[in-house]
Design a protein that fits this description.
This is Adenosylhomocysteinase like 1. This protein has about 425 residues and is an alpha/beta fold. It contains 17 helices and 14 strands. About 45% of the residues lie in helices and about 15% in strands. The protein is globular and about 65 Å long. The termini are far apart. The chain binds nicotinamide-adenine-dinucleotide.
């Protein structure tokens, strides 16, 4: 690059292409850009040294560049070995952000990149932005002295938050941590609406499958599962749901889905999609019973939901038919189509809607403000920043109405326990 050499990406020469991608993303992330403009001169994040581990896409680049514009120093790595947009990583590196990431990293590369972000001479992070908890765990285990000095962790995923709670319960979490995942502006939008749009895109791009009349089973009817079910139902698929939680199972019933055990439908379904955040939801025994030509993929956590490791046995042949598409072939000739080796389908094989990520990224930005300035955070504020995009006009409470409901006219409009 023209500037620093403190980065490792696939090809720095792609930086101009990456810059154009980031500029396209900026157009649909107006709320983040307006936050950037509003606070740029004050540099509210001066002194923040942020080490980040997220998907490296044009949308996260807008977040990273906003953090930098507000005064933060950033070093960044990828939370998923397949999801990095190489050209975007190049564009970020060219502007001086230390990025260590490329699409198609090996497991060893993945940990090396994380280590290079944390372990560098003359720079020590004081903030962590994590998606999945791998970075946090690495710092906690390998660099306990650095960990102790961290001022705050912002964690985005269900799984990462779960790992933080485990640390906290064991009395080992000595650092304040913010749970972005449970903020309503993340959960409803990133998990539900984002997955509702990107599940179809991921499946189409990889397999060209037609959805009408296909039998699909969605494992888990949480936010991600609800989004996937809605999209597939709308295109005429016959959708089954598996659940462990009676409340979510009942919601699925009310929404018109048959709730089944995976074993009841395993021989007949065309597509299995896991969305549970759990592990071994689809086992080798079940994969053995799937029919020829069926598709199996994951929209939930990491690569643990489908027991992919169990498919690496000598009697099964793996055939790479397209990028991120493997045919696993049984001795009798039966093929199961495995997408992205069981990693997140939408993030590995398609792009995700920029606007939704703008909402999550703006939420993350506000979390940083909180750590540094204790600003009063409203998820409603993040939402309202995005309403202008739709020329949506909010109704204002009259004084009389506000008094009647016992609310401040400027919100919050719901009690803390309200579930959106
Ligand atoms: N692909 C994406 O873009 C994307 C976006 C957001 C979140 N996620 C990930 O998706 C996962 C789910 O997120 P969520 O917000 O829907 O969580 P959630 O907790 O709302 O939903 C998960 C559901 O799975 C159910 N479940 C757990 N184990 C199960 C099992 N063995 N069989 C059937 N159901 C089971 C739970 O009862 C729960 O209802 C998380 O790992 C999250 O990090 C992915």
């Amino acid at each position: 690059s023209k500037g620093s050499s403190d980065f490792c990406v696939k090809n720095i020469k792609q930086n101009e292409f990456g810059r154009r991608e980031i500029e396209i993303a900026e157009q649909d992330m107006s709320a983040l850009i307006s936050l950037r403009k509003r606070a740029q001169s004050e540099k509210p994040l001066a002194g923040a040294k942020i080490v980040g581990c997220t998907h490296i896409t044009a949308q996260t680049a807008v977040l990273i560049e906003t953090l930098v514009a507000l005064g933060a120093q950033c070093r960044w790595t990828a939370c998923n070995i397949y999801s990095t947009q190489n050209e975007v990583a190049a564009a970020l590196s060219e502007t001086g952000v230390a990025v260590f990431a490329w699409k198609g990293e090996s497991e060893d590369d993945f940990w090396w990149c994380i280590d290079r972000c944390v372990n560098t001479e003359g720079w020590q992070p004081n903030m962590i932005l994590d998606d999945g908890g791998d970075l946090t765990h690495w710092v906690y285990k390998k660099y306990p002295n650095v960990f102790k000095k961290i001022r705050g962790i912002v964690e985005e995923s269900v799984t990462g938050v779960h790992r933080l709670y485990q640390l906290s319960k064991a009395g080992k979490l000595c650092v304040p941590a913010m749970n972005v995942n449970d903020s309503v502006t993340k959960q409803k939008f990133d998990n539900l609406y984002c997955c509702r749009e990107s599940i179809l895109d991921g499946l189409k791009r990889t397999t060209d499958v037609m959805f009408g009349g296909k039998q699909v089973v969605i494992c888990g009817y949480g936010e991600v599962g609800k989004g996937c079910c809605a999209a597939l139902k709308a295109l005429g698929a016959i959708v089954y749901v598996t659940e462990i939680d009676p409340i979510c199972a009942l919601q699925a019933c009310m929404d018109g889905f048959r709730v089944v055990k995976l074993n009841e439908v395993i021989r007949q379904v065309d597509i299995i999609i896991t969305c549970t955040g759990n592990k071994n939801v689809v086992t080798r025994d079940q994969l053995d019973r799937m029919k020829n030509g069926s598709i199996v993929c994951n929209m939930g956590h990491s690569n643990t939901e489908i027991d992919v490791a169990s498919l690496r046995t000598p009697e099964l042949t793996w055939e790479r038919v397209r990028s991120q598409v493997d045919h696993v072939i049984w001795p009798d000739g039966k093929r199961v189509i495995l997408l992205a080796e069981g990693r997140l389908l939408n993030l590995s094989c398609s792009t995700v809607p920029t606007f939704v990520l703008s909402i999550t990224a703006t939420t993350q930005m506000k979390e940083y403000d909180l750590f540094f300035f204790n600003f009063f955070l409203f998820a409603a504020y993040v939402a309202s920043l995005h309403l202008t995009t739709f020329d949506a006009h909010l109704t204002e409470l009259t004084d009389d109405q506000a008094k009647y409901l016992g609310l401040n006219k400027n919100g919050p409009f719901k009690p803390n326990y309200y579930r959106y």
